[in-house]
Every structure is written in structure tokens, then in C-alpha cells.
Amino acid sequence: MTSGTRTITVGIDGSRTGLDAADWAAREAERRRLPLRLLHAGAEPPVPAPVPDVDLPARTALDRAAVQLAYAHPALDIIARRTETPAVPALLAAAAEAETLVLGSRGFTGFAGFLVGSVALAVAARAARPVVLVRTGELAEDERMPADDGTPPGRAAYLPVVLGLDLDHPADRLIAYAFEAAAVRSAPLHVVHTWTTLPPTGHAPGAPLPGDAAEREEGARRTLTTTLQPWRHKFPGTDVLERVIPGHPGHHLLRASIRAGLLVIGRRTSAPGLGRAARSLIHHAGCPVAVVPHC
Length: 295
Fold this sequence. Notes:
InterPro entries: Rossmann-like_a/b/a_fold (IPR014729), Universal_stress_UspA (IPR006015), UspA (IPR006016). By secondary structure, the chain is an alpha/beta fold. It is built from 8 helices and 10 strands.
């Protein structure tokens, strides 16, 4: 399907979290040169009464979001739609027609991680297209490197995109999404593969691994390089850092997310729901998380 028939779609519920997600979605739509679709699903909250003696109509949450985003992103093509279909089926249907579906997640004030509501988890676990989960309070400058030279925050370089890659299932759809996300940002891409046979107790970080483990690590490095080689040719302007790390994926990807603008992880459609590592990353990552379904 061509880009002209696709959108970046965001779920709107009237909350601060939803507006933060909508602003992230608007920036992503601008980066990808796609329309932005706002979708409010389920029953509409009560509309505030108009202010007396002021000739302005009362606005719904969807109306307010559309107006705010139109002011902030005047060149963006914005489509607002409401449906009374319950949230999960409505969002799943919208995801099937979107380039990416964006949802907000209610956060812990003062903590880096965030709680994800049941609707967001249900949609991320079943959507046919990528779903990005955005924390409450996510700002445009959070995607970019700190600027110490007087560069305006909106013009600073983007932080890296981090891709967690399982070499047993190196799906093209997952890798393509990560490379495209890095390319539209002119950001580096950090590809992280972990393997769970841990070094012996007392092994010093950076020290040579024993024979079998060292061979396995070297084999993983070669496989990762071979897997990414055609993508490097397809995206020659993207700087790619390959990392093969012994340990559990959740731990290392959480650490990588602290210094990332976007974390990209996969979800196998042949397995039901989200795995333990994916759920942990969705709840606690330090940046927005893109969950990409693949075979």
C-alpha cells in the first residue's frame, strides 16, 4: 500500500496522556510525511457547557485535540473521527489501516517507568501494525540530544533508535521499521542482540569468555552483521552500531532505552499476547516503545 493511503493514527481519550501521545504522533506524521488521524472510541465524556455570553461552541475532547494540534503543526493534514465502538476493537481496526498506531500510557509522577492501561496492552498484543506507546509527559526535546552550544532544542540531533533483535527470528518487517524510524530522524540505529547463557560466576566484564561462550558470542556477531548487511546497503545514510551482549534482553534494552529516542521491539504473531520481556519493556522503558508484529 502506498504512503498516500496510510496514516499515523492516535487514540484520543481526553486525558493529558492522550494529548502527549497525540503530539508525539503529530511529530511522527510530519517526519514520515503522512496524514495524522485522531480517533476517539467509545462513549464521549460529557461536553462542558458553553461559557455564558461567549459565542463559542462547547468542544469535545476530540475537537480540542484537533484544534491544539492544528495550531502546533499548521502544515499537517489532520483527520478527526469519533466512533462509539468500544476502544479495543475500534483501535485494532484503525491499526490495520495505519502506518503506525500511537497510544498514551498513564505514568508514575517522578518515576522513569510508566503504567500501561489494559486497553493499550490489549491493542499492542493483537494489532496487525506497529503500535507505539508514549509516556505521560513525553516532550519533543526528549527525543533529542542535549544541546550545550546554544542550538534550539527542536533543532538538536535526535537520540538513537534502539532495536532489540532476536537472531532466531530476525523478521524483515521489524528491521525495516527500525531502519525507517532512524532514517526519518537522521538518527543512529543501535541494534542490540542478547543471549541468555550467562558468563560464569565471578567473570569480569570485558574479560575473555570461556571457549563455548566465546564461540557462541562470535557466531552471534557474525550472524548479526550478515543479517544487517542488506539493510545497511538500503539505508546507507544511517549509522548502525551492532551490539551482542550476554544476559537477559529486558535488562540490557531497558538500560539502552535511557539514552534512546525510540525503542523498537518485536512481537511474534504466532505466539499469543506479549512475552514477559516485552511487557517489562513496555512498562519501564525510558522512551516511547514501538511494538512491531511479525511472523
